[in-house]
Amino acid sequence: MEKYGHLFIISGPSAVGKTSVINEILNRKKSLRHIITCTTRPQREEEQPGVDYFFMTNEEFLTHKRSGDFIECSEIYGNFYGILLSHIKERLDNEENALLSVNWQGFSKIKKALDKNVHGFFLVPSSLKDLEQRIKSRGAELQSVIDRRLELAREDMKHSDIYDFCFENNSLTKTVDGILKRMDLIRSGRSK
Prior knowledge:
Blueprint: E1 7-11, H1 18-28, E2 33-34, E3 38-39, E4 54-55, H2 58-66, E5 70-76, E6 79-84, H3 85-93, E7 98-101, H4 104-114, E8 118-124, H5 128-137, H6 143-157, E9 165-168, H7 172-187
Parallel strand pairs: 1-7, 1-8, 2-7, 3-4, 8-9
Antiparallel strand pairs: 3-6, 5-6
Helix pairs in contact: 1-7, 5-6
């Protein structure tokens, strides 16, 4: 039987806490490899290039896109995001387990392209009111921006059924504990 690593994908609407969940998972499971997304969006103050994202110019990103280097890429809020296939294949071919965050469209494309050992976890907020507060805490002050993000969140959540597992992210510890338990079961062959 061919040996191959597992790819664990975390998705959910903007501001649901994906980055916090991923950082805590990586902190607790040092053996997991983080697949870093490429983006053209501006770097946030707390982010580090090559750790949080590979920050690219539009020209660099489009060069990779034209070359077919991305397994998945999309435009979100006017910025490009993409996952380099080479990063994923290198990890999985070396029997490593990897962690990645993409939106539901990206998850669908990756699941179809890789066909095996891809496991999806979808995070939902405890309520839309809670999500609205998280969006506001990120500095979104215009109600039109908040309303648009909430509209996109509702759309994202309509696709949660394509994922293997869905977690309400109202407690970082509880969410991460649940995800890690599922990951351990998957790796041991006792779960889907």
